[in-house]
Design brief:
By secondary structure, the protein is of the alpha/beta class. It is built from eleven helices and nine strands. It has a seven-stranded mixed β-sheet with strand order 3-2-1-4-5-9-6, sandwiched between helices. Strands 7-8 form a two-stranded antiparallel sheet.
């Protein structure tokens, strides 16, 4: 039987929730699927495993980015299943789609849509979201969209950064920014729900039942300062660096090279704590 063509959910022109966020991710997309950011791949595979994705499942990946969860999910569901990835960044989606084509996963589809406006006609067995709950002003956005698109009894999983993640980068970077640009340091970053009670309440308010909250410990090794700076530009300091001039960015780079030195091992490597929480449950 010939395979039916994938349904096209893409509008003629996508209307992103935040054009600033879209432009940020479009800009860093070419360097996102890379060794300095490979912890996203580790956590993507971990999230898929925690969700219990299996052969034949229909999987929805919200804010799928460069495919860190989409690709391992597509590998597991196989040709009898389906993977639909949604993101606001065309650049990130292009990376994810190229990875899927390289693997021959023709059952994987990627569409540019704002997650908060998503209302697809079909329902899914599994919904995933890696490290995006905190990107929305209303942090029930992701779990509510999951609930809307899951079959009754469907499985869901999202990941959050755990307390202490990104250290020692976070402490070193924030201290340096307070010295160089105290006006930017005063603006707090977004964070996801903190603590088991808050996480379970967030899910419950969205129509989901929490099954488990699992700590996934990852020590991520960066081989040299260039890899660390790639991490800073692409992830750890991405948003802030868009708000400074090229000269200021260079001063930040020079300052970080000196400030991070005490944290390097004898071979010049830096180990970052990139621990995460995998939150799973049922609709």
């Amino acid at each position: 039987m010939p395979e039916s063509p994938p349904r096209d959910y893409s509008p003629v022109m996508a209307i992103p929730r935040s054009r600033e966020a879209q432009e940020q991710f479009d800009r860093v997309a070419p360097g996102f699927f890379s060794s300095p950011l490979s912890y996203f791949e580790t956590h993507g595979a971990g999230l898929v495993s925690a969700a219990g994705v299996k052969s034949g499942d229909r999987v929805l990946d919200l804010a799928c980015g460069a495919g860190s969860a989409s690709i391992p999910a597509a590998s597991i569901v196989g040709r009898s299943g389906k993977l639909v990835g949604i993101d606001i960044s065309r650049g990130m989606l292009d990376v994810a789609a190229r990875r899927a084509r390289t693997e021959g996963f023709h059952w994987a589809e990627f569409h540019q849509r704002p997650v908060e406006e998503l209302d697809l006609e079909e329902r899914f067995d599994v919904a995933l979201c890696g490290f995006a709950v905190h990107h929305f002003d209303d942090q029930t956005t992701v779990p509510r969209v999951m609930a809307r698109h899951l079959e009754p009894g469907g499985r869901w999983a999202f990941s959050l950064w755990a307390e202490g993640s990104s250290e020692p980068h976070r402490t070193v970077f924030n201290r340096l920014i307070r010295e160089l640009r105290p006006d930017l340091a005063a603006a707090p970053g977004r964070s996801g729900p903190q603590g088991r009670a808050a996480i379970e309440r967030l899910a419950h308010e969205s129509g989901l039942s929490t099954r488990a909250i699992e700590l996934a410990e990852v020590d991520h090794v960066l081989d040299n300062f260039d890899d660390y700076w790639h991490y800073v530009k692409t992830s750890g300091g991405r948003s802030l660096l868009t708000r400074v001039s090229e000269d200021e960015a260079q001063r930040i780079r020079d300052g970080l090279q000196a400030a991070i030195a005490p944290h390097l091992d004898s071979q010049g490597r830096l180990t970052l704590c990139m621990d995460a929480l995998y939150v799973t449950g049922l609709r």
